[in-house]
Amino acid sequence: MAYIKSSKEMEQIIEGGKILGSILEHLGGLVVPGISTLEIDEIAEKMIREAGGIPAFKGYKVPGSTPFPGTICASVNEEVVHGIPSAEKILKDGDIFSIDIGMQWPANCGEGKNGNGFFTDTAITVAVGTIPEKIKQLIAVTYTSLLKGIEASQDKNSIADIGRAVEEYIKPQGYGIVTDLTGHGVGHGVHEEPYVPNYFSKALEDWKIQPGVVLAIEPMITMGHHDVVTADDGWAVETEDMSLSAHFEHTVVITKDGPIVATKRPSEK
Fold first, then answer.
1. Which residue segments constitute the domains of the chain, with CATH numbers given?
2. CA angle 91, 78, 239 (to 5 degrees)
3. N or C: which end of the chain has fewer CB within 10 A?
């Protein structure tokens, strides 16, 4: 089964994930009012290539779309995911900014997809300048829901258990859980089976987690309704009611001793 990774593959995913986590933390530290999302994108590509990797998202294409032009997905405020970085997209005080980044590492290693290395994928949402307490709470709750999903990613649990853990934490607090977008398997490709929703799906109770499975777990939580729409550029996904949205993601490697967060950032415990 392609989604089961060998011990050697898991080791490379963990090593690449550590690099990507450090890159993302650095990018998050650059977020200040007045910086453009293109500036952050250009630094992201430079750091990935200097680390010996390849940006996973740049040039990525889905049927009916143009290739994605950025190294990062740069999503601001009501944009949930897949925002395109731009020189005109300048962050301002009070915004919230989600950076989603993927990397194939190492380049030209003769392994993995297309003769290159293995994929990892991770995301954060950060405040731009000063934001109200209720928006800080949205960000904090979304991050905690990611931790709940990771905690449920245990050998012999099911994919449904991950969604259940996120939903049981988020739903009583009144936030919206985006249902049209999900986490996913990752490693040989940037997107693999299984899909990993952030709500309980009985259909996924039979999809058992086992050592060698690698998952990108990524709650996308809104301050309003869960419905989303795609923008005119064909990429950015926004909340339909224009409510703010936060997004966190980690690549998680399943072992018999528990999940390993491959993309853990240096500041995370």
1. 7-261 (3.90.230.10)
2. 165
3. C
